Sequence to fold (285 residues):
Amino acid sequence: MLYQVQFTVPAQAGQDVSEELAAFMSERTGAGWEEEETSTGLRCRVFFETPDKAALVAKQARERWAQSEPEISEQEPENWALAWKDFFVPVACGERFEVLPPWLKDSGSPQLTPIVIEPKMAFGTGHHATTSLCLAALSDLFGNAASSKGCFLDLGTGSGILSIALAMLGHHGKGLDIDPEAIACARENAEANKVAAPIDFAVGSLELLEEKEQFDIVVANILSGPLIEMAPRLRRAVRSGGSLILSGILGEQAQFVINAYKACGLGEPELRPEDEWVALVWAEV
Fold:
């Protein structure tokens, strides 16, 4: 059983409430959410797998927006899965990758490398800007078949999509996530894409790393707050000459994240914006 939370962020004269909603939801779900403009404001619909999580987010929405009128309803998982087919279309990410669902795996572009992702509650189908920005950056940095191969860390792996892309480019490494269901989903997706062998998925975060363990590529698609808190350890995790890609960052939060990593000795990153989101890319640290 899935639990749907629906509420409406009231319209505010002269203000774009979409960024406010994005900041609120990105801290509470890794599965994405649906937005719809209405005459009274911006309606949000999101699914959770436990009633406690749904109730908590409904309560927090009511506290944040007194007139939001949150509602919780139950929905059968198979209905949710079928609903994906109404709007899940192939999405090109950069000049190398195309993300497809299993039922469209044979209809992709012959010029792009297909990544087949089973739509589930784990975040990372490529449709969200935070994921597509990372895929495009990986495509640009490592899409050349002649580039050297190395080891990677994918922090907050979700569906495993970024680990899968890196494995397809010839790299090997670790995909970590604090959500056990996300790791189970990531392993399934890696198997489906025939790249399970070079990826070590595990439940957890930076505490799973050895103190001096380093990687040629570190990608972290999480949230601004954790990225700032983790800055010293994430910086140490990048081998000299390696690459660092950070995502899950709202544009208004980007400078705070940049400042945290500059304090750890990094220079200015390349900023890659899409909608209200930004990815930060250090091609060589």
